[in-house]
Write a structure and sequence with these properties.
This protein is an all-alpha fold and 344 residues long. The protein has one domain: Rhopdopsin 7-helix transmembrane proteins (Up-down Bundle). The protein has 12 helices and no strands. One of its GO terms (cellular component) is plasma membrane. Keywords: Cell membrane, Coiled coil, Disulfide bond, G-protein coupled receptor, Glycoprotein, Membrane, Receptor, Transducer, Transmembrane, Transmembrane helix. It comes from Erpetoichthys calabaricus (Rope fish).
Length: 344
């Protein structure tokens, strides 16, 4: 029995062999690791490239310079930075089940991860507000949602999450009162973000409250859009050409609202499992298996890869810009003639 116990101890693999209190490394075959690297790397590449195309398209083509598209561009920047600054290191941590980049970089990575997740929620909130005015108050939309207002929205969507994320983690407010538990669960080679019960509830509130507000806004938008669609259908033969043009513009705004509503739905679908499990995990002393928690986290990350796919499916300008980028003709294309019929 003693010999078997010694052999079992020797077979246990640690993140750092010669370091006391090293985390235990999950042993995986080369084939399993290769498949995991391939899948997670593909998600990362799609996230980076897809969102980069959105950023280039909106910034390069003047016809796409609208308040709404600038919000979309800023959201794409959030997703792009997630793919560039967070996902490559999360791949290593997920596949190898160890963190080899030191505690300081671990803290920075966790801060950036939390920052970008919060920034996504803020951007989606402001996009919902923009679509509300575009569909429900089309006559006052251009006066209420100006470029100046959008710049303020974007500033808030970046500054508040930055202060919240870095302030919370670097003041260690998130682990006050559970220091002993953190010491027990911490080991060399680990990099996880823990919360006490208070902050677990508060962080969940930062997710759930904006989501409820956004769902309410989009419910109102689609109610108004349906009513407008019925009015347009009933008056189609009676209205003037100028009125028809205004109605067409309303249809475009409604289509944009529908597309961004789908983006919100996908965001909720991807992140809800994580935000359900994360606060529960705190109250059960972080007993969620690592593989389950990592799966929920990556399911949330996949949302950043889905967004460009949604743009590709619903927005003709995205498909045209992608074609121009692939064929290297983007710098030679006339900006004024690129999108003659659709700006959205």
């Amino acid at each position: 029995f003693i010999n078997n116990f010694i052999i079992a101890m020797e077979e246990v693999e640690y993140c750092f062999k010669n370091v006391n209190n090293s985390c235990i490394k999950v042993s995986r075959s080369l084939r399993v690791r290769a498949v995991m690297y391939a899948i997670l790397s593909s998600i990362t590449i799609i996230t980076i490239c897809g969102n980069l195309i959105v950023i280039i398209s909106i910034t390069h083509f003047k016809q796409l310079h609208s308040p709404n598209n600038f919000l979309v561009c800023s959201l794409a920047t959030v997703d792009f930075l997630l793919g560039l600054c967070v996902l490559p290191f999360s791949i290593m941590r997920t596949v190898e089940t160890c963190w080899y980049l030191g505690s300081i970089f671990c803290q920075i990575s966790l801060c950036i991860d939390n920052l970008l997740s919060c920034a996504s929620i803020f951007h989606l909130c402001f996009i919902a507000i923009d679509r509300y005015y575009a569909v429900c108050s089309p006559l006052t939309y251009t006066t209420k949602i100006t470029f100046k207002v959008v710049y303020i929205f974007i500033g808030i969507a970046w500054i508040l999450p930055t202060i919240f994320s870095f302030g919370l983690i670097y003041t260690k407010a998130n682990v006050q009162g559970i220091e002993d538990l953190v010491m027990i669960l911490s080991c060399e080679g680990g990099c996880i973000l823990m919360f006490n019960k208070l902050w677990a509830v508060l962080v969940s509130t930062v997710f759930y409250v904006p989501c409820v507000i956004m769902i309410s806004i989009y419910a109102k938008i689609f109610t108004v859009a349906r009513r407008q669609a019925r009015m347009i259908k009933n008056m189609e033969e009676k209205i003037s050409m100028e009125e028809k043009k205004r109605r067409e513009n309303q249809k475009r705004e409604q289509k944009a609202a529908k597309t961004l509503g789908i983006i919100l739905g996908v965001f909720l679908f991807c992140w809800l499992p994580y935000f359900i499990d994360a606060p529960i995990d705190v109250f059960i002393n972080f007993a969620t298996p690592t593989v389950v928690f990592d799966s929920f986290t990556w399911f949330g990350y996949v949302n950043s890869a889905f967004n460009p796919m949604i743009y590709a499916f619903f927005y003709p300008w995205f498909r045209k810009a992608l074609k121009l980028l692939i064929t290297c003709r983007i710098m030679r294309t006339s900006i004024m003639n690129l999108f003659p019929n659709d700006f959205h």
